[in-house]
Each structure stands twice: as structure tokens, then as C-alpha cells.
Design a protein that fits this description.
The protein is 22% helix and 25% strand. By secondary structure, the protein is of the alpha+beta class. About 3% of the residues have low confidence.
């Protein structure tokens, strides 16, 4: 009798499981996915991780309702981490080796996470800092994202009502940039509440400039921080100034407020139980503020430069309050999210990352130790579950010595030799990609995007022309005092076509009547300067702490007319034909629109 009852119960369980499986495989039953990526937020910039000077209740609540990966690693800087999140592969393999001047672009033969989810019927959108290529086919609209709003550079010079872009068209932002990006994310969720969607929110704070609304800054401006960070070894390092860490924490609290708005919207739309949310940062803190005492900040391959908060939340589906101490990395997000969503397509390229599904759901599962490689500009550090071998081949026990104070390579000889061998092998197999010269030109007129932006960021200044700042991402060209000097780009026209040319510039009144020319191969177009616009730089008035990047100006458009371009490579040249005043123009951007 007991056996019959047991058999009946078993049949019921099997029937229910089959029913649920069928339900989950019906159209529109894929879970929604939201990836929130912050910029320069350290592991220690959350109250859930022990920071007593900050309050991040919404992110903390995500942690209590989800799974926190406490030893999660990313790259030391922005664009490499983004490439690894988007492709599931080490950034060096994807063509990303720098943060500007073309080195931030993901190779066009790479499949992105948006490509994967879009192919499975998801609506896709990205709102924020892209930083993996501006011109199509590197632009987000040609990498699987149907809707894009934000900017493609590595940093932006103004966070209040800034000039941004919407699917290739220049637009004016509304309010503080993170609030604005969140608004777009909320509207996207509302439009697609009945469709599976993949929403990528790469926020650009607390990256400098250190700008944040008063309501968040006022809490910190007179606050004495109780937890101090490491001391900078660089003289006059502004990231160690008294206001820099305060501003960073204020910006993190603003991010938390916006995370709360996202969570609230999911509940209001009644899609919170079918939405996976991931929260992480792209590298260590952009300053010497409290970070759990770890060695290194942004740009470093030591623990503090590459350890990121990472929370994954799927209400009522994944365990609540679970902390995973196994090491994991940015390269794991694509295979993990794909696995959680039940997408079984084969990747276009071999992934370096692993699905973390077992670590999320299972207890005491067998998980083999692995190496995570952190590389940036000649510095390579590798991490196992218990040890880190740094760029100078010093070995540290990360359980007993998380601050990396004592080299134990002479005591743990077997571990040291094994990790050093793995490091050399990775250098020979992966870093070999860096030995090939980057011959990728800046693409003009790709058929999948109407507008092509060619910014000063990507240009070469010739003669006495110089950048407004050493950091190119949000810079402009100035000091055009010699008529012989030029601004050039290595360019490639994707297809023959006619293009309307618009130059964004400023100039003083004495430059009226000057003439400039744009040329590529046998094509050229020229125009006279008939309107002067000589505004002051701005941004300083909104900075809570001094910046290292360029200030910005309000640039105006000059429509030069239509140029005919032939498919092929060449040098795009902006030159002066006639100079009336002391200087020609200050140059910010070329916009070429296919007509």
C-alpha cells in the first residue's frame, strides 16, 4: 500500500515538473535580464560590504534577496571589463587593448551577449557608457542592441543635461545623467513588460568628473569619513583629496537610489519574479578610499584593482541571501545568463567564461579550482581560489594575507611554480594577440547606421594643434595657430556614398572669413566660417572635487555640404585653407550623414 502511495506521489511530481517545463518553454517565458554596471565603484563602496560611511539599502536588499559573489574579478579598467561582459572572452582576444584611440573596440567577428539574446527573441537596449567603439559596425546599434541612449566614449565631461546620442543622433540629456539613463531603462521596461527583454545599464559613475546632485552631496560635504583608504604614492594625486572620496560615495548613493527605482518598477509591472538582475562594477575604486584594506586601485592588477561587487537576483527562483566564496569573473556573465535563461545555442567563438549556475543553486557542489587572469598594459596577475601571483611574480595567500603584504613564493614552491607556468602559458597563447599591429581604421558610412561620428578623441593632431587635455575621450582640438597644421584620422569608407558633412566647432570673432577643408583620397569639400561662437569652458562649477580630464564647451554645427566618398581606406584630413584671426577653430566632432 505504501509503495502504491509512493508511486502515485512520484507520478504527481513528474506530471507537475513536465507541466512547469512546458509552461517555461512557451513563447515569451524567457526571463527578462537587467545588467547594471557601475563605473569605478570599488568592492568597498557598498554598505553590504562593510562600508560604514555609505548607505546603499536597495543594493543591499538585492543581496539579501539574491546571491552575492564575494570574490568576483574584473579587469583593471573600463573598456576591457565591458568587452569581457559583452563577449564572455578575455578582452585581449576581442581586440580591446586600450581605452581610447580605437583600442577600445571589440572586433566585429565577436558575438555579443546582445546578439545572443536578440537572436532568441529578446528586445534589447543599452543606456549609458558604451566604451567599446563609436562608429558602426562597432556601435551598440550594430552589436545587437536595438535601442541605445548615452555616449560611446570612455568618459564624459558633463553630467547635467549633457549632449548625448540616441541611436546615432545627437540629443540633449535631461537632468543628472544617471537619473536620465534610469528613466530610459524604466520606459524600456514598461514598453516591453509583455516581451522578454535584455536591458544593459552601463552607468558612468562614480567615474570622474565628480559631479552629483545637491541632495546626495549635501549628506557628505561636511561629513568626516570614519574609514580611510590606502595612501597614494603619487604626489598631488587629486583622487586622494578630501572631497574626492566623499563625492564618490555620494555618487554611489545616487546609483543606489536609481537601483531602487528599477526594483520598484519591476514590482509595479508585476514582472519582478521573471526578471534576473545583475549588479557589478567595471574595476576597482578610482581613488584611495576605503576598500577593505586591499592592495591596489583602478588600473592595478592587484586585488583591490580588480575585485568587484557582484550580485545576482531572481526573486523567488534563486536562493536568497546566499554568499558564494568561489572565485568568478566578468567573462562568466554571458554563459551564466544564457544558461539561466535556457538558451542552448552554440557560441560563435569559444568562451573563456564558465556558467555559474551550479554555484548559484547547488550546495556543496564540486567546483574545480581555476585561474582568473587580470591583465593591463604589460602587467599580468593571476588568481586561484587561495592565492594570487602578482605581476612581479610575488605569491600571496589571499586567505591569510588579503592585503598582499608577505611574499610566500619561497615557502609554497609547488604552488608558485604551477602558477608561474600557467602565467607564462597564458602570455604565450593570449597576449600573442597584442603583437599584431592594429590596422583597423575608423569606419565611415557603414550601411547599418545612418550617421558616423568622427570625434577629436580618435584624431591625430599635427603641428602645433593640441588636445584640450591629455585624456582624449571627451577632449577637443585647440591651438590651431598655423594654417599648415592638420587634424587627421586613419579612415575606411564602408560603401560608396554621398555624405552630408557637419563640423562641430567654436571660434573667436576674428576667425570670421576663415576657410576649412575636409578631404579623403580624391574627394574634398570646403566651407567658410560665417558665424563665430566663443563660449567659455564649463564643468568646474559642478565639480565636487578637481578633475584630471578636459572641461567642456558648447560647440555649434557648421554644415559644410555634401561630399562623395568611394569605398576604401585613406587618410581623412581636416585642414585650413584660409586663416583670418589668431587661431582657426577649436574642433570637437565631425558628423557624416549618409544621404
Amino acid at each position: 500500500m505504501l509503495q502504491i502511495k509512493y508511486f502515485i506521489r512520484l507520478l504527481i511530481v513528474v506530471f507537475v515538473s513536465l507541466f512547469l517545463s512546458c509552461e517555461l518553454n512557451k513563447t515569451n517565458t524567457y526571463p527578462n535580464i537587467i545588467v547594471i554596471l557601475t563605473d569605478d565603484q570599488g568592492w568597498g563602496d557598498l554598505s553590504i560590504n562593510g562600508n560604514k560611511d555609505i548607505n546603499t539599502p536597495n543594493i543591499d536588499q538585492m543581496t539579501l534577496n539574491g546571491v552575492r559573489f564575494d570574490r568576483f574579478f574584473v579587469s583593471p579598467v573600463c573598456s576591457p571589463t565591458r568587452a569581457e561582459i559583452l563577449t564572455g572572452r578575455h578582452h585581449v582576444r576581442t581586440g580591446v587593448y586600450d581605452v581610447s584611440l580605437g583600442g577600445e573596440r571589440i572586433n566585429i567577428n565577436e558575438e555579443t551577449i546582445a546578439d545572443v539574446f536578440k537572436a532568441s527573441g529578446y528586445k534589447t537596449a543599452a543606456y549609458g557608457k558604451w566604451h567599446n567603439g563609436m562608429q558602426a559596425p562597432y556601435h551598440p546599434n550594430t552589436r545587437g542592441f536595438e535601442d541605445f541612449y548615452g555616449f560611446c566614449s570612455g568618459h564624459w565631461g558633463n553630467y547635467f543635461n549633457p549632449v548625448l546620442e540616441k541611436n546615432g543622433e545627437l540629443v540633449k540629456g535631461k537632468g543628472f545623467i544617471i537619473d536620465d539613463l534610469t528613466n530610459h531603462g524604466i520606459e524600456f521596461m514598461k514598453r516591453n513588460k509583455d516581451n522578454p527583454f535584455f536591458l544593459y545599464l552601463p552607468f558612468n559613475t562614480p567615474h570622474s568628473p565628480m559631479q552629483v546632485p545637491d541632495e546626495f552631496w549635501n549628506k557628505f560635504k561636511d561629513k568626516e569619513l570614519t574609514q580611510k583608504g590606502t595612501v597614494s604614492k603619487i604626489p598631488n594625486d587629486i583622487s586622494s583629496g578630501i572631497n574626492h572620496p566623499k563625492a564618490a560615495l555620494a555618487m554611489c548613493e545616487n546609483v543606489d537610489w536609481n537601483v531602487g527605482r528599477i526594483l520598484e518598477t519591476l514590482e509595479l509591472l508585476k514582472i519582478d519574479k521573471k526578471t534576473i538582475i545583475v549588479y557589478l562594477s567595471d574595476n576597482g575604486p578610482n581613488g584611495h578610499r576605503w576598500n577593505g584594506g586591499m592592495k591596489g586601485i583602478k588600473g592595478s592588477t592587484d586585488e583591490g584593482g580588480v575585485r568587484s561587487p557582484m550580485i545576482i537576483n531572481w526573486k523567488s527562483i534563486i536562493p536568497a541571501g546566499k554568499v558564494v566564496n568561489k572565485i568568478a569573473a566578468a567573462i562568466d556573465l554571458l554563459p551564466t545568463l544564457k544558461d539561466l535563461a535556457g538558451i542552448e545555442t552554440q557560441p560563435k567563438n569559444k568562451l573563456d567564461g564558465l556558467s555559474l549556475k551550479k554555484l548559484i543553486f547547488e550546495k556543496n557542489n564540486r567546483w574545480e579550482d581555476r585561474y582568473i587572469y587580470n591583465y593591463w598594459r604589460g602587467r599580468l596577475s593571476i588568481r586561484s581560489q587561495d592565492f594570487r601571483l602578482d605581476t612581479k611574480n610575488n605569491l600571496y595567500d589571499m586567505n591569510k594575507d588579503p592585503k598582499q603584504l608577505k611574499d610566500i613564493s619561497s615557502k609554497k614552491i609547488e604552488v608558485f611554480e604551477k602558477m608561474k607556468m600557467a602565467k607564462t602559458k597564458w602570455e604565450n597563447e593570449v597576449l600573442i594577440n597584442l603583437k599584431t599591429k592594429d590596422n583597423r581604421a575608423f569606419i565611415i558610412g557603414h550601411p547599418e547606421l545612418k550617421n558616423t561620428q568622427i570625434p577629436a578623441r580618435d584624431a591625430k593632431a599635427n603641428g602645433l594643434i593640441k588636445r584640450s587635455n591629455y585624456y582624449p575621450n571627451c577632449s577637443y582640438m585647440t591651438n590651431w595657430v598655423n594654417i599648415e597644421d592638420t587634424i587627421t584620422w586613419d579612415a575606411e569608407v564602408a560603401e560608396d556614398g554621398e555624405f552630408e558633412v557637419v563640423v562641430y566647432y567654436t571660434c573667436s570673432k576674428d576667425a570670421l572669413g576663415s576657410e576649412i577643408e575636409l578631404s579623403l583620397s580624391d574627394s574634398q569639400i570646403s566651407s567658410s566660417i560665417t558665424k563665430y561662437h566663443d563660449p567659455d569652458e564649463f564643468g568646474k562649477e559642478n565639480d565636487r572635487s578637481p578633475r584630471i580630464e578636459s572641461y567642456v564647451k558648447d560647440f555649434i554645427p557648421l554644415n559644410m555640404g555634401v561630399i562623395s566618398l568611394k569605398k576604401g581606406k585613406g587618410t581623412l584630413i581636416l585642414r585650413g585653407l584660409k586663416k583670418k584671426g589668431k587661431e582657426l577653430i577649436d574642433f570637437r566632432l565631425l558628423m557624416l550623414k549618409r544621404i
